[in-house]
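Dear colleague,

Following up on Tuesday's group meeting, I ran the structure prediction for the two-component complex that the binding team flagged. I've pasted the input sequences exactly as they went in, so you can double-check that nothing got truncated or mislabelled along the way. The structure tokens for the whole assembly follow below. Feel free to forward this to whoever is handling the docking comparison.

Inputs:
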Amino acid sequence: MAIIEQPPRQLELAPAGVVGPSQALGAYARPLRATGWRAWLFTVDHKKIGLMYGFTAFFFFIVGGVEALLIRLQLAQPNGNVLSADLYNQMFTMHATTMVFLFVMPMAAAFANYFVPLQIGARDVAFPRINAFGFWCFLFGGLFLYISPFTGGMADGGWFMYAPNSGPVFSPTNGIDFWVIALLITGIASLTSSINLITTVLNMRAPGMSLMKMPIFTWMVTVVQFLLLFAVPVITVALVLLNFQRLFDATFFDVEAGADPLLWQHLFWIFGHPEVYILILPSFGIVSEVLPVFSRKPLFGYPFVVFSGAAIGFMGWGVWAHHMFASGLGPISVAVFAATTMFIAVPTGVKIINWLATMWGGNLRFTAAMHFAVGLVVLFTIGGLSGVTHAIAPSDTQQTDTYYIVAHFHYVLFGGAVFGLFAGFFYWWPKMFGRLLNEAWGKVCFWVMVVGVNLTFGPMHIVGLQGQPRRMYLYPDDLGFSAWNLVETIGSFILAFGVLIFLVIAVMSFRGPRNAPLDPWDARSYEWMTTSPPKEHNFDAIPAVHSIDEFFHRKYEEDETTGELRKVATAEEILAEQEASADRHIHLPSPSYWPIVVAFGLPVIGLGLIYNFIVAGVGALITLVGLYGWTQEPSAHDPEDEDPSAGPSKELATVG
Amino acid sequence: MADTTIIHSPAEFVPEDEHHGVAHHTSTGLSNNKLAMWLFLGSECLLFGGLISTYMLYRGRTEGGPTPEEIFDIPFTSVSSFVLLMSSLTMVLAVANAKRGDIRRTRLWLVTTALLGATFVGGQVYEFTAFYREGLGFTTSLFGSSFYTLTGFHGMHVTVGIIMLLSLTFITQRGRITGDRAEVVEIVGLYWHFVDIVWIVIFTLVYLIPA
């Protein structure tokens, strides 16, 4: 039996009754360190995994942002010469792929991982090791995508990668091969985490928390996980077919061989339109948390917000062909999809009305988080309105492939999804780190970004309607696009400056003391009923739930005669009460080596598929060994692996 | 020990694998593992949905190569389909015996199920070889590409199922499952039945209904 040092930190953090894991079935000893880089590499703690998702996603946000700035530099003047045509194609492809798959989705996954267990009173997710595996798949998939610049060229077919343009004839470099395999790997991350989070939400809620008492963010995340569960396999099929075409000479999308080019479009957009809601719904959830807190009112029409979210989830499957109006589907298909597209604006409009009614008559506090939340409501509505114009098929046919479309989806994605995520940063920063972000600079950051968004994407409506085509690396001077394009480029740099301000205040927050109050916003929901940052086991005792805004109702009581709210308890008192009745028996999952090993095998297999099947065999071997180790390991470690006499910093042996 | 004062909160953390022999309380009453398998199978429906749609679109596009009518050997495939369907029966017997706690019979039926599955995969390998000799390669035509992709994906799923069944036989022998044994068998059974049901759809659409 291996002898490993006692995990010192774990015992310090845990209350008296926390017991270590207790089964001796592993083929190998488990990693036990609670500090240092190993604590992150082998962690299965949903909070650490959430933070890793967040930091990685923000890194890719910067990468994708730099790509966007290069695009805007190229287009700043007519006949620009910053990028070649080929490089420009690669830039817009990678910008979109990075922002969608490596920033917005994983940043939402970061919030979901961190806050869903906290919001439902669980001590971790249902499958902690699969959770870690999902993160490593995302990271390795993202890095795999960015190997391609060093191997002859990045993917250059647009993020939708329309066939037959994505075939080997039109894109001879390996860029698209890297793109396909990277998306397959990040798809595994999305699929596993969706199964994991749905199971967690359905099975591990606190006593008394019925589905209709769940915090609204958790609800929206759950809808998103169902969308992922059913959308990911569809794009997997499309990617596998494209992969077989490019690597094994199949002809699935080769029109000369009799293939139907619409097959790719259908498969891609059956995934792609639910994907749009996968991107926006987490931000809707965040905003639905932030607005009630800073309006000091409960969320107006909670069931309507829940059901409109679920309705969006269902209807999102019936509108995909509105991305294909220009492809000659025939009048009946076009008419049907035009109608469904108009209908889906209804549940979205319901949400906007709910948010406005939440704020109406409320005691509004304009914090930085509130700024971003209100910013989302306004900017998303603008993007939503231009979206409805796309439902009018004849008009859409005119707008297809113009900057009008680019304007629309950047309003809903940047003004919507990204603003929601920033509201989440400001709102939950004290919960995650025990530190507040600078409020004054946060508001400056918000206004700079609002100006940036509107200067960058606003004029795109105009040049789009004037006919400027998207994905063209040049435009001549005499068409009247020049002035607006310069404005857009200036706007994009203002936007980048806003993101830079956020980075600075984020870094500055770590230089001060960890002094955020326990309940800085007078919050309403469950996750605030623990320390900031939360303990490793989240809650000393799982508080029972009686109402939607459980935390708020524990703090305030309604005076029976006047009907006014009276504060009856502080957050500190509620926490102290919980600590006094702490569970004596808390079982936490142990760290594991295997998730990162299994995930590491996947990009190796990918490299092998592209270059040499022997390498693929090596990758498969790594994954198989990892899977074997995984299955031979119980979810908790053996206390006999710990040597109580070992010093706190010496590791005597790791493998027995 | 403090064991006597353990407070079993209903929301106590439920470990990833049930190694404790105690059924933990969950909000739905379904165990995490079983719920996750159901969700995974829901996702798999869309995977096969996409592959089947691709095949249905392309099955008439033979590019001068062999057509489905020329190449399919319906009696042979019917027999191997029958074998696969019978494996669902033996799987049910394995689950029933696991629930009764009869480990010896459980293992017997698990191995039988795996053997029937292997027979089906063997039949598929034979069929692929025969089709290839008759001139239908993977890249011969869109029909060929989509046929091999769809049935190949299904064959891979059966193979993974066989590995699961044999692993289960192996670990029950070594007493490795200390949790709810019957449920683990049942969860593998869910996967196995799903793979069978998909084959019923594939057999009907690919082999029986003429293009």
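Residues 129 and 155 of chain A are 32 Å apart (CA to CA).

Cheers,
M.
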